Every structure is written in structure tokens, then in C-alpha cells.
Amino acid sequence: MHLRLINPNTSVPMTEQIEVAAWRASAPDIEISAVCPSEGAASIESHTEEILAAAAVVAEIERAQSAGRRIDGFVIACFGDPGLDAAREVASVPVVGIAEAAMHAATLVGRHFGVVTTLPRTLGRAEDLVRRYGFETACVSLRAADVPVLALEDPSSEAVDAIAAEALRAVEEDRADAIVLGCAGMAGLCRTLEARLGVPVLDGVAASVGLVSGLVRMGAGTSKRGEYAYPPRSMPTSAMPRNRVR
Amino acid sequence: MHLRLINPNTSVPMTEQIEVAAWRASAPDIEISAVCPSEGAASIESHTEEILAAAAVVAEIERAQSAGRRIDGFVIACFGDPGLDAAREVASVPVVGIAEAAMHAATLVGRHFGVVTTLPRTLGRAEDLVRRYGFETACVSLRAADVPVLALEDPSSEAVDAIAAEALRAVEEDRADAIVLGCAGMAGLCRTLEARLGVPVLDGVAASVGLVSGLVRMGAGTSKRGEYAYPPRSMPTSAMPRNRVR
Amino acid sequence: MHLRLINPNTSVPMTEQIEVAAWRASAPDIEISAVCPSEGAASIESHTEEILAAAAVVAEIERAQSAGRRIDGFVIACFGDPGLDAAREVASVPVVGIAEAAMHAATLVGRHFGVVTTLPRTLGRAEDLVRRYGFETACVSLRAADVPVLALEDPSSEAVDAIAAEALRAVEEDRADAIVLGCAGMAGLCRTLEARLGVPVLDGVAASVGLVSGLVRMGAGTSKRGEYAYPPRSMPTSAMPRNRVR
Amino acid sequence: MHLRLINPNTSVPMTEQIEVAAWRASAPDIEISAVCPSEGAASIESHTEEILAAAAVVAEIERAQSAGRRIDGFVIACFGDPGLDAAREVASVPVVGIAEAAMHAATLVGRHFGVVTTLPRTLGRAEDLVRRYGFETACVSLRAADVPVLALEDPSSEAVDAIAAEALRAVEEDRADAIVLGCAGMAGLCRTLEARLGVPVLDGVAASVGLVSGLVRMGAGTSKRGEYAYPPRSMPTSAMPRNRVR
Amino acid sequence: MHLRLINPNTSVPMTEQIEVAAWRASAPDIEISAVCPSEGAASIESHTEEILAAAAVVAEIERAQSAGRRIDGFVIACFGDPGLDAAREVASVPVVGIAEAAMHAATLVGRHFGVVTTLPRTLGRAEDLVRRYGFETACVSLRAADVPVLALEDPSSEAVDAIAAEALRAVEEDRADAIVLGCAGMAGLCRTLEARLGVPVLDGVAASVGLVSGLVRMGAGTSKRGEYAYPPRSMPTSAMPRNRVR
Amino acid sequence: MHLRLINPNTSVPMTEQIEVAAWRASAPDIEISAVCPSEGAASIESHTEEILAAAAVVAEIERAQSAGRRIDGFVIACFGDPGLDAAREVASVPVVGIAEAAMHAATLVGRHFGVVTTLPRTLGRAEDLVRRYGFETACVSLRAADVPVLALEDPSSEAVDAIAAEALRAVEEDRADAIVLGCAGMAGLCRTLEARLGVPVLDGVAASVGLVSGLVRMGAGTSKRGEYAYPPRSMPTSAMPRNRVR
Question: Which tens digit of pLDDT belongs to each residue from A72-114?
Fold first, then answer.
């Protein structure tokens, strides 16, 4: 089985990190490839960049489908799940977003989860996703560590401490019994944070591999009746961000 | 007061019709201008096209703001309210979407409203908006007339009958006491449909003029604290669809 | 266009203040008149007084409609929106309440709003209205400044500081990005509070003028099919509080 | 224990019928008295009449409390529960509404209930009450038999058949497994309808006696902290509908 | 009327206390009998013990129904309402749970209630019940005193202080205006806590007597159409916990 | 990885069928074993049998954990997810229910799903699960084929036609774009029904393998802080249904 992860920002180091995180959570018969666009947003930290990210996701799926190689499932590796509905329209195979995946997983290991994101301005998007997926009751805490996405690439930054501090408040003040990491760039922090917090810490990249491969194995594709039928027109090539296949 | 309406599809006739509908619902001291992109989607009938529309909306606001002329408020003249959150980020003046506007207006003239859209595949987006705006209880009916957007430009089409038939079912079967028209292209049908149905029929273009001009008059701009603060980076020009100023 | 605002308490100074606030937010072609009953409750601060207020609202609409002068829309200028459903029954033109109007406006300028009212005992009514209008998710804070309504008429009182303090807690602790003022008597405080808080502050009197004039311009009247059809019997004159036309 | 039932319309036969229905559902140590105003609305079938009814309820409680005789609990014997919040403010003993009572009872004997009311225009009020009491999930059907309230006094009318027909649709089409009768005047129909429908049929008059006497026996009065504290001012006598003690 | 209360844990002192609490809240024509199983869980403080409790409840109802003596209603006297749905299936007379009863009663005496339970691990079950019964809006506080159930039998323990402290936080921080006691073993604390808190304190044992006797007097039995029809097969005797009739 | 599926009814053929369905959806490194109790309920079709099933699930987990063999995750293979909360308490490894799993999967392949169960009396339990998992908006249809569980073992029965008919109504009348099969015994019908219906048909047995193995691979265990901590006392052996290891 071949799964393609799409990081819609242009950070190559983050894309590599995503690929590793996905690979670690994969069954032995799964091949993982991660890609990112070669131009577009360096990180997705505003509603405006979310639009660029959505366009990048759709472009990559269309490009991948017109290339010859078989892909069995797609993952949108950005916590806002940008372009998820459009991706389900254009893809012929299952698509899962990492926010969606982490939240689903969190509800299987505890009653209440908290989300810890990067900048406060992204909390609105997270709240929309929580409602869209049905987890208003399960999600008891939405917190931002006030850390820019790209600071996560710098091991000397104080990002981890800031994230841990908010996660602890989610557990102790808001009664979360599991934590969802609100950025693909946090994938490497699960074990460290679990050790500090004493509750499960869920990364959406790893979670998405389980969800999408599960759909593939059970033969469940996106419903092509109605809303997610192939769109009447493709996205024009001129509107597609260019990508960098890795 | 100068209000700018943005039709994110490329149809010039529809843009002109939108401008007229807005002008008819305006106070005497309001100037209306409507624009559409010169390239992009001919109509917005899929999640994929919704992304193009969102990019077109943001591009037009940024372009308008860097041009010299004063604009007091923006309207997104497409029923999916594409790019509304991003528009509130980038605009310095109030922004309202027509779906939002029509739904707000409908709750002021009745307890329950129904939405009649074009193609069934757009119902999912409408459902998302209903929840986002808080109208799950007020909205008792989401129906599609199964009419493509561009058929609305053709007076000889049977589009009006199809829309009236679904609206009637919303009233009689689903107990709607007002009808929201689910496409900017339906703006001209209000009076005809009201005569047939006996309940108020709300067009978002007219409704949005009242809402956004009201915000301007009371001095209420978008909150720039937190989520809708100006984004850290502008949308790159290369990602902006070109437009056609009218 | 002639809009009639109904203050259902007997305070003439508050009625004059309401008229001014409405006039300031009006288009040039709008005429404003505000009235209050000559007997009834001095202020509306309990559920019991809410009933008197509701009766006063209906009485004034019936009286206005039987008088000869044309009125194009009514506003209920009391934050509990007393008698709103009944007013929609008896009026032939659109009716909007100021709580309703301020909350609608708040959702157009931010994701989350907070309400700051006068006495704590009025919070229950505010909570009912929030749910009735669909804003449970948007409204993240309901706070009382513990200030009686009539203290708002006294410039030397500490009412403004108390209101500002609760509004600040709504912003900082509850994550509101806009504030709704929970009393018609607070209409004059918007600019002062905005300067202190850094977020939009919405007054329902100003907001209601935009909403109801918008409905008039788009030709949208209350649905007279079903619930809001004219009532089978008028309110008996003996049950009507007397009023003072201004 | 002495319970006072307040029928807020002026129908003496209906008041007598309410007294009998309450007495039949009472423990042996309970005395029942029912009253109605001597002037006011003949029946409560509009939002406007609901205001008169609310005033009548508050007036009767204040009158009863200033008379010398001990009363242990009040029942508002009109399905819209008019004035319930105000009644809890002014009363020193527990108050229950019959809509509230019937809905609570219905959730104890089945998962889903349906309400059958009189005129369609009263459905909006019923929907508000369902939400206010928390029964949106439990209540799966709101139907009107299109029967005026006073037709229920006429044994030769076809009212019973019309009510039975809607109740049957609630059971078979909407999956209700219990029926709530939506008018105090239907109190005598329970057994007849149960025999026809095969599911429990709940009358609020009987249900309210159980609820309010239960509160009295367990020593639970209305919380006087906050919202339901005695109001700062009584209702002025001039605003009180006159009553007829029976 | 004969009501049978079922304490599903094996504590005889708690069963006796439950019987007394029920008797105190009963009308003079009601006979009360309380039973508990002779083997099973000493207290119900985990989901695992909840299963044992549910089995004990069903066993006792089946045993009571096959014995000759008439029983008019059952009460499940454990705050998790274990086995309530199954009890409604097997019983021919009404069944009420004490959590359900206390929550219903709380909504009749205030707008917002708080629940104070024993161990924090039981809060999840309480949250499920709140949603099942429709009281998500009414219930504003779920708190645990961190007191084991059996400590409630020891008058020298500090349990009462711990419960009072959490109840006070529910009132002052969470705005509860009534308190629900989250354990049958707390039945004796109502008056003490009310004196300390100044708001109504509701015990489910007393509340359930009012509810179930009210259903009996109004002739309302569990709907036997559909979900609560008698089960196709009885619980096998081998699966029934033995009981101790008192 | 070794996954243990627990069928809580005593049907050996159904247990074998479950094992096969799970094995078919497994990665190559997964070993599957399915067990059922040797005494207990022949099928789970009432709330009373649900209690037996819950006890059987807990007993099997405790038995498996005290036996020497390593198990990496448990699946509760009965659509009511009996005993799921208790199972998370007693298990040291992740536990997933098949209703939960199928519903999660359905939300990944469409916007709206419908559930088709066996007997109508089981719909209440399904509705509870839908709410517990957060899928009230996603689940638009709950239908029963009126087929007893054990009829599914009989290939000559008309069960498949009855299930297909209800599923078709869910798609066409209720707008489901995916179908969830509401019984472990329906696992073999997915492909047949998909061919007839043209939308994805989800079986919980297959879906649960993907979910629970995904949790194992990402190292996510049940949160042992709070609600799902190991229970203070084990289930007494006398309360455990005996089992049959396969």
C-alpha cells in the first residue's frame, strides 16, 4: 500500500519530519511518500494562508493522479485540514486530514481531549474543525502555546516548554484526559510530552496513517454519490501552486 | 458610503445583475461597485471551485485596498461565502457574505427558514454555513433545485419553476415560513417567488447591503484582536487570480 | 422611511437618549421617533417587569397602527426584547429587538462575543435570548456589572468603570473578541469602551436601525403565514399601558 | 397540602375541568383549588394573549400571597407556561407549569415524545419551551390538530378525532412512544387516546400535581439566590387583570 | 401505593438510610420498601461496578414481579441510574432513577444546577446522564468531592466538609443556583448543606418518590411500544446477583 | 500484533464469521483471535441482554489479561458496544467497539451516514451511541430492518433484502451518503450492499481492526488518569459469565 502525505507549506525539513513520523506508525506493507509545494506559504498560520494550502492540496492530488504511480490514500498533513472537502471530491482514493485523525484517535483513548496549537489566531479554525467533526463535547480545551510554526524546527527554542505548559493546563484546569497536538510540526514531541503529562498525546500524522490505511484495507472509498462526486471542472493549471516531489 | 461587491466567478452578466440588486436595496447615500475576476471559475459549484473563489475574494480585497479609492465595506457575493474568514483578516473595513446576510435576515422575519440552492452537491457547504452561523434550529430545510448556476442567466430555462417547486416543499412539508435563495444569481427572483409562495423570500445580495452599511454607520469594524488581526504575510501576487474592475 | 423605537420603561431621559443613538446610526432618508409608556415600569430588571414591558410594546404598536401616520418599521428598545414574538404578530411592518440586533451585529465583526448587562438577575433572560437566536457558540461570556439601569443616567456614578471591568474580563478570560452592551441605557458608552478595550463594542439601538431599515429596503416583511399571522383577537384596551408620544 | 392551579384564561368550565383533573391525580392529603381571571383572554392562542396570560398568572400569585390562606405550591394551568419565570420570582413556594410537567413526565415513560397542540400558530411557543426545558432530543414531533381551544369544551365537536389523528402520526411517522397533550383543555382525553394509540398519553395538569407536591414534600423551594429572588418592585395593581376566585 | 427502592450495592446501612429518606418524602398513602443484593459490589464507583449494579437492578425487579406482592413503582437508588433502560423493559410499572429524579427536580427550582459526586472517576458517568436526560444547558457544574461512597456512612469523616466546599464552588464560580447530590448515600445531608449554601439542595431519593408516585397517580406507565417492550428473553437466573429482602 | 475480538453472545458461527471479517481487514503482521462466552445471551437484542454482554466483555478481558499470552488491543464485536467504558478501565491496552469504529469510518468517507440495525427495539441504544460519540449531525438516519440477529446466519432468509431496502431509504429519503451496518453478524454483506446501493457500506468489525491497530502502532493507550484508571476492585469471579476460547 502506498500512502501520499501532502504538507501544504513549503518547508522541506518539516516535510521530511512528517514522512518519518508517518513511516514510524506504518504497517510493514505500507510505503510512505511525503511532498510539499515548491512555492506557496512557508507556514499556514492565517485564514489567508489556509486558502493557499487548500489550493496546494488539490493541486498535488490532481498531479499525483495524472502521474502514473499508484497511490492508495492521501493524508493532508497540516492541522487545519485545508482543502479536505475538495480533496475528497478530486481524489479517487480515501483522504484523511491530520486534525481529523488526531481528534478521532483522542476520543478512543479518553473522554475529553484538549488541543494545543501554535499561534492564538489559529484557534478559530480549530474550533470550526471540532464542530465539523462532531467533537464539541469531547473537546474541552483549545489552547495556543503562542509559538510560530517554524520555531518548532529549532531545537534550541523554548517551544516545547510552552507547549507542555498549555497541555498541562488543559489536563489540570480543563479536565482533558488526552492531548491533541495542533500542528504537523509537533509530530516528534509525543513521547516527551506524554512523559511529562501522564496522559496520551496524539499526533495527527501518526493517527492519519492508521485511519487511511484502515479505510483502504476495508475497501472503503469516499462516497461518490452527491457532494463528493468528481467536480464538474478540474482546477485550472494556472491556479495550481507548483510542487516539489520528494 | 462606497460598498464593493465581489462576485468570485467570472460571469460578467451575473456581476452586473448583482450590482443592480445591491443598488436597489441601498440608501441614497450609498455607492455600489461590483467586480469579478477575469480568470478563474465560471461558476462556483464544487468544493474545488470554492477554493478558487476564496482566493479571488482575498485578491480583490488586497487589490482594492492598495488602489487609492476609499471603500467602506465589502460583500462576498457568492452563496458559499468563500474566503469570508480570510477576508475579515485582510480587510480594514467590515465584510459580509451573502449567505450569512440572507440567513440573518430570514431569522428576523420568521421562525424557520428554508434554503433553496442550485445543485445538490452544494448542500453540504450550505449545511456547514448554517452551523457556523448558529442557525441549526432556525433552518429547517436545505433543498436543491438541481439547476446549474449559469442556467439562471437564461430566462427561457425552467429554472424558476424548479426553484419555486422546492421552495414550496420547504414551506409545506418542512414548515419554513421564509425562504433563502441559495445563489447570487437568483437575486432577481424574490418578488416572483414571494407572489407564488406567500412567504418572504430573501436574497443575500440585498440583505448584505443592509447589514454591511449598518455596521459602517454604527462604526463597527472587524475585531482586529486575535483571529482576524492582519495576517503575518500577504497572499503572494502569483497566487492571486486576476480581476476585471467594472 | 420612518422608524419607531419603543422604550418600554417610563424613563423619558432614556427614551431621548435612545432616539439620539438611533438617529446617529441612520441613513439620511430615515426619520426616527422614540416613545415610552406614561405608566408602567421605571426600568425592566425582573421577569415580572418584562411582562409589563411586553404589554407596553404591543400596546404601542397597536396604537401607532391605528393612528394615521405611516411607520415603516419598529424597534423594541429594551435589551430583553420583551414582546418580540407578539410584536411580530400585531405589526404589519418589520420589528427588530435591540438584543437581537446587537448579537447579530457582533457575529459579523468577530467569532466570539460577550454580553455585559446591568443586574445579575437579568442574566437568565439574556441566556434565553442567546439560545433563541442561535448564538450559543458565538456568545462565550454573559456578565453583569451589578449596576441598576437607572444609575446609567447619572454621569457621576461608577457604572462605566464597572461595565468596563466586566467587559475586560470577557475579553481576556473568556476570549470574546467583541462586546455587546446589555441595556438600551448603555448606548452612549460604545466609543469610550472601545477605546479602553481594543475590541468592537456593539450597541443594540444603533444595530437595530441598520437591521430594520435593511429589511424595509429589501422589501422583507414578517412572514404572515402561521405563527406570526395577525392574532385572532386584539389586546383589550383595558390591558394596554398608557403611553407618552414624544 | 394546598395546591393552587391558575388557569390564565377566563373560561370557568375549563377551570372546573382543570380542578377535577388535578384532584384525580392528587394524594389524599392534598387540597386543590383552581382559579381564573374574571377579565382577560377567553383563550390563549397567540403570543399577544400569552402576555395577558403571564400578567394574569403573576397577579393571581400576588393576590393569593397577600390573602391570608396558606398555599403550598402553584401550578400554571396553560400549556404555554405563561409567566413561569416571573411566577418563580414572586412566589415564595414552588411553581410548576403544565407543559413543563407533561414533558418531564413523558421522558420518564419513553425515549421520544410528541406534542399535539390546538392551533398551528402555537407550535412556535411549544418549540421554545421544548428547548428551554432541554428536551430537543426527546421531543420528536410537534403537531397541531387545528382545533381552537374552546372547541374542546364541546363534546359534539370533531376535536377528539383530529387530536387522535395527529397523535397517531406522531407515533407512526415520527417514532414518538408517548404523547403530550398540548392544552389544559385536553385533560379529560388521556384514557380515550391511550386506548386508541397504545402508548402513554400525558396530561400536564395531572403531571404538575405530582411534580409540585413532590417538591413540597422534599422541602425544595425555588432558589432565591440570583435570578428568582423576589423582584425589586411588585407589579402595579393597575396592571393586574382582575380575577375570579372559585 | 407500594414503592420499591433498589439499592444495587450490598451496604445494608445505606439501604436503611435510603428507606428512611424515601419514607420522609412520601405521601401518607405510600408504603416504602428498600432492598439490596446480598452479594455484588460494596459500592458503585467504577464502570465495572456499574455493570454489576445494572444486573442487580434487573434481577431484583424480576424477582419482585415473580413474588406475589403488588408493587406500584420502582426506584433505582444509585446515582448512576444503573440498568434504567433494562429496568423499563422488564418492569410492568414505572421506574425512575435517582440521578434522573434529582436533575428533573433541580430544573424546577432554578435555572442552573451543579452536581457534586463522590470520586472524580464517576464524573464521566454523570456527564453521560446529564446529556441523556437533556440537561446540558441546565447543568453548569460537575464536581467531585473526592470522597469514597462508604466514607459517607462514617459521621466522623470529613466528607461533609469536602462536599460543602465543592458545592460552594459550584454556586459561586459556576453560577449554579441549585445543587444535586451525586450519591444515594448523601440523602441525609440536604438540610445541613442548604443551611450552609443558601440554595436548594436536591436528593434523588426524595425526588424519585415524588416522580414515580406522580406517574402512578396519573396512570402513566412505561411505553411498551418499541424499545421498552418486554424483552424477548428473561435474564438467566444464573446471571442474577442474589438479593437480601428487607 | 495480536488483536482479540470479543463477541459477547454465545453464537460460535457468528464468532467465526467475525474472526474472518477481522482477518480480511488486517495488515500482514496482525494476528486475530475471536472469542465468545460459553454461556449468556444467544444474541443481544434488548437492554437486559446488553447488561449480560457488558459483563461478558469485562470478564473476557480480565481472563485474557490474567492468562499469559500477549494481547495488543481488544475489540468489542457487538454493535451496542456493551461494556466499552468498563473495558477501558480494566484493559491495559486499547479497546474499540465496532459501532464506534464503523461510525468513525463513515464520517471519513461521506458527510452523512445512516445506520441499519436488526430489530426496531435496538434503535434507542444506537441513538445513545451516536450522541455519545458526537455524530448527531453526521448520522441522518437510524433504521431497523426488523430482522432478528440470528436470522443473519441463515442464507436462505430474506434478511439481506430487508436490510438493503432500509439502506436504500436511508440514502434516498434521508440523504445518507454512506451506510453503517448495525450488527456484527452483517459483516459479510458489505460488498453485496455496496453493489446495490452505490455508496460505501461500513462494517464495524473491519473498521475496528484499522482503528485499534492504528492506536497500537502510534503507541496510544487508554488514558489512565481519572475515569479510566484501573477500577478499585475487580469484577468478582462469580459475576463473570464463563467463556469459550477459540
Answer: 999 999 999 999 999 999 999 999 999 999 999 999 999 999 9
Residue with cell 507547549: A163
Phi, then psi, of E171 in degrees rounded to 5: -75, -50
Cell numbers describing residue C25: 446610526
Q: Summarize pLDDT for C42-84 with one digit per residue, the tens.
A: 999 999 999 999 999 999 999 999 998 899 999 999 999 999 9
- The answer on pLDDT for B241 being more than 80 is no
Interface confidence, given as ipTM, is: 0.95
> What is the gyration radius of the CA atoms in chain B, in angstroms?
17
Residue among B27, B218, B219 whose CB faces C29 most closely: B27
DSSP C163: H
In terms of Cα–Cα distance, which of B111, B100, B114 is closest to B179?
B114
pLDDT tens for chain A, 246 residues: list them.
999 999 999 999 999 999 999 999 999 999 999 999 998 899 999 999 999 999 999 999 999 999 988 999 999 999 999 999 999 999 999 999 999 999 999 999 999 999 999 999 999 999 999 999 999 999 999 999 998 877 877 767 788 999 999 999 999 999 999 999 999 989 889 999 999 999 999 999 999 999 999 999 999 999 999 899 999 877 776 666 665 444
Mutual orientation of helices A190-197 and A159-172 as an angle, nearest 10°?
A: 40
**CATH number of the domain that F43 lies in?**
3.40.50.12500
Same domain, D190 and D122: yes
Residue F196 and residue F125 in one domain: yes
Provide the grid cell at A67: 502521474
- For residue F105, the chain A residues in CB contact (below 8 A) are 214-215, 218, 220
> String of b and e for F147-172 (b: at least 16 CB within 10 Å)?
bbbbbbeeeeeebbebbbebbbebbe
Nearest Cβ partner for C131 among D85, D88, D131: D131
Write the CB contacts of D33 (distance below 8 Å, at least 6 apart in sequence).
Answer: D2, D3, D4, D5, D19, D246
Domains: count for chain C: 2
Nearest CB neighbour to B177, from listed C94, C104, C223: C223
- Which chains share 3+ C-beta pairs under 8 angstroms with F? A, B, D, E
Query: Do B143 and B221 belong together in one domain?
Result: no
Measure D230 CA to nearest chain C CA, in Å: 9
Other Cβ atoms closer than 10 A to A212: 29
Which has the closest alpha carbon to E109: D91, D184, D233, C144?
D91
Q: Does one domain contain both B53 and B126? A: no
Nearest to F223 among A25, A177, A215 (CB): A177
Residues of the domain holding A57: 2-97+206-244
- For residues B106 and B161, membership in a common domain is answered with yes
Phi, psi of D226 (to 5 degrees): 90, -125
The maximal CA–CA distance of chain A, rounded, in angstroms, is: 52
User: What is the rounded end-to-end Cα distance, in angstroms, of chain B?
Assistant: 18
Answer yes or no: do D42 and D107 share one domain.
Answer: no
Q: What is the DSSP string of C189-223?
A: GHHHHHHHHSS-EE-HHHHHHHHHHHHHHTT-PPP
Domain check: are A198 and A105 in the same one?
Answer: yes
Q: Do B107 and C133 touch (CB under 8 A)?
A: yes
Q: Which DSSP string do the residues of B212-236 spell out, in sequence order?
A: HHHHHHTT-PPP-SSTTSPPSSPPP
Contact E210 D206 (CB under 8 A): no
D224 pLDDT band (50/70/90 cuts)? very high
Cβ–Cβ below 8 Å for F124 and D111: yes
Q: Is the domain of E139 the same as that of E222? A: no
Distances E239 to E56, F37, F60 between C-alpha atoms, Å: 9, 13, 15
Question: D203: nearest CA in chain E?
Answer: E218
Cβ-based contacts of D229 with chain C (< 8 Å): 121
Could you tell me how many CB contacts below 8 A there are between chain B and chain D? 4
